[in-house]
Write a structure and sequence with these properties.
The complex is a heterodimer of chains A (226) and B (295). By secondary structure, chain A is an alpha+beta fold. Chain A contains four helices and nine strands; from the N terminus they run H-H-E-E-H-E-E-H-E-E-E-E-E. Classes of the chains: A alpha+beta (226), B alpha+beta (295). Strand 7 of chain A pairs antiparallel with strand 12 of chain B.
């Protein structure tokens, strides 16, 4: 083979691999992977420090098919080190009362608008996100986990698993806007065998713990009122 | 050249136009009104009398018949029709068609008369204007068709006769298919499920709540036939404690959602292949072009 041709093949192969690797391992750098928060008003939630209501639906304005983005923070825990300098928001779409059609919509959204690749907005802020619905009087939020414990990905599931790996998830207080939620229950469960979670809670957040299985980290969160 | 065009095209065209303007074809249309006129009818109810002369002709109908219409023809004029209501037994037709030359009437050439049967004195001819209570003239009875199964069901002129209902009594045997006892519903009933109302605080005891219920009775033979609603005794219970107030457990089933990053397996496979190819080719490239040259 001509040396010149061999060098060209080598260059093409190297460049192609580099570009592909770049897009795979740094997905948030691609335009289509940004979380769209441009057309969504950042809501000030209905809660305030003195609010007595514990109705999460009322506090987060969960009615109809609403999509909201609110500021997010964890009050009593440290975040993974590479999260510290970024603004963090939480984005959710409320799908209504649970039904088979809601279940279909949930999984569809998790693959499209709430794809695991969508982690940052164009400003570089972290946007934790997931679809939400109401079941048995308790809201359920389903979020992705990149299984990197927050080192590589900026996913809600990564944060939850990161805190749980340090036995810090139970008792964690986080804020969705002005609404303060405290983690009251944590369970690792294989959903296909046992899907019941019980405890004093207003919100359940579920995230996966394995790539192709039904093992989930499920946490129950209670609205804190003063 | 122009002269040739004139002689071969324009002039013959002008001549043809003049021919059309003054040709007999146009004049035929002008006198088309003078085409020999029709004759009076002679078929059906009409009786035609030919070879008449003079200005008058009297026709008398045979017994039992009357003249309802007459027609006569005089000269080249179109036939002249006249109707008679009521119909007459005898009619005299008089030519009033004038001769254009001397203004004298044209003589009759022939005449026709339309005959109708003389109506029976007893029978009136009923129409809708006759009052319904006029005993002298009642509407004719409609002819009853004789229905059979070949007549289509949607034929409004001939509907099947209504089946005569037998009057059942206890002497008629039970197995007589022609006369069955009348069906009486709701003789035997079954009870539907109890439908409970919402729990409400018992006004007589605020620590308890109650709910009212009722059920519907249905006919045994026809479960869709409702036979009334019956109330049941209200249920009472102690007002349950608010689980949130007491901090009791909520429980829910968590659904299995596609929250894992499972959509990138193919991407990783491609990535792996690319890296493998790059490594292999790098080894080959290094051996071929660098190690070889250094030797």
């Amino acid at each position: 083979m001509n040396k010149k041709v061999a060098i060209i093949i080598m260059a093409v192969l190297f460049t192609g691999t580099a570009i592909f690797t770049f897009t795979v391992f740094y997905p948030t750098l691609l335009d289509s992977f940004f979380v769209n928060t441009q057309d969504i008003t950042v809501l000030q939630t209905n809660a305030s420090e003195n609010v007595q209501s514990s109705d999460l639906g009322e506090l987060l304005t969960l009615k109809g098919s609403t999509t909201s983005t609110v500021p997010f923070e964890v009050s009593n825990r440290y975040l993974p080190s590479n999260w510290e300098k970024k603004n963090t928001y939480v984005k959710y779409t409320y799908l209504g009362e649970y039904s088979l059609s809601v279940y279909s919509k949930l999984n569809e959204l998790l693959k499209t608008d709430y794809s695991w690749r969508k982690q940052l907005n164009k400003e570089g802020d972290i946007v934790l996100s997931g679809p939400m619905f109401l079941k048995d009087g308790i809201y359920q939020l389903h979020v992705h986990n990149g299984l990197s414990l927050g080192k590589k990905y900026f996913l809600f599931g990564d944060l939850l698993e990161y805190l749980n790996s340090k036995d810090l998830l139970l008792g964690t207080v986080m804020k969705f806007g002005d609404v303060r939620l405290e983690c009251t229950t944590v369970q690792r469960m294989e959903i296909e065998k046992e899907s019941k979670i019980s405890g004093d809670m207003d919100l359940v957040i579920s995230t996966c713990l394995e790539r192709n299985g039904d093992l989930r980290l499920v946490s129950g969160w209670k609205v804190i009122t003063q | 050249m122009k002269d040739k065009i004139l002689s071969f095209l324009v002039l013959p065209s002008i001549m043809f136009a003049l021919f059309l303007a003054f040709s007999p074809v146009g004049r035929v249309e002008a006198i088309s009104g003078g085409v020999p006129a029709e004759t009076c009818p002679a078929t059906g109810d009409w009786v035609k009398v030919d070879d008449l002369s003079g200005l008058l002709y009297t026709y008398t109908a045979l017994e039992g018949q009357l003249i309802a219409e007459s027609c006569y023809k005089a000269g080249s004029h179109t036939p002249f029709f006249q109707t008679y209501d009521p119909a007459l037994s005898s009619v005299t037709v008089t030519s009033t068609l004038l001769n254009p030359q001397g203004n004298a009437a044209q003589e009759l050439s022939h005449a026709s008369f339309r005959l109708v049967n003389e109506p029976d004195d007893d029978m009136c001819e009923w129409n809708l204007e006759i009052p319904a209570d006029d005993d002298d003239c009642v509407p004719p009875e409609e002819e009853m068709c004789e229905w059979d199964e070949t007549i289509p069901a949607d034929d409004d002129d001939c509907v099947p006769p209504e089946e005569e209902m037998c009057e059942w009594n206890e002497e008629i045997p039970a197995d007589d298919d022609d006369c069955l006892p009348p069906v009486v519903s709701c003789v035997e009933t079954t009870d539907g499920d109890i439908v409970w109302g919402p729990w409400t605080v018992d006004p007589s005891d605020p620590t308890r709540e109650y709910r009212e219920g009722s059920y519907t009775k249905y006919d045994v033979n026809d479960p869709t036939k409702s036979c009334g609603t019956e109330e049941v005794d209200p249920e009472r219970r102690d007002i349950p404690d608010d689980p949130d107030v007491l901090g009791e457990d909520d429980e829910t089933g968590v659904v299995l959602a596609a929250t894992g990053p499972t959509d990138n397996i193919l991407v990783y496979v491609v990535e792996l292949l690319l890296v493998a190819m790059l490594v292999t080719y790098s080894v080959f490239f290094t051996k071929t072009y660098f190690l070889k040259n250094s030797k």
